[in-house]
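Q: Here's a chain of 96 amino acids. Please give me its 3D structure as tokens.
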Amino acid sequence: MPQAVKKVVNKVPALVGAALTYSKPRLATFWHYARVELVPPSPAEIPKAIEADGVAVAQVVDGLFGLICTPLWWGVGNGVHTELLVCCFSPSGLVL
């Protein structure tokens, strides 16, 4: 049994090195897009975003999905995507 544990322990540095080699380019790409996409809104954009969300919610409640313009749906999608990233990658969030 101790020999089996010793073999596994000896393989750990190689596995960690392989994991780092595999993940470094992918993490670099992720951080590149994260810096571009996850820029917080400016103070001037916040009232517009709140108004747009109110319009979207009102149209969904009324069942008027066809009247919601594409950029508004993109905003809703970006909000959901941001929430997903925060939940997955924040220290207090769920890590998958």
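Q: Can you summarize the key feature?
A: The two ends are 32 Å apart (CA to CA).
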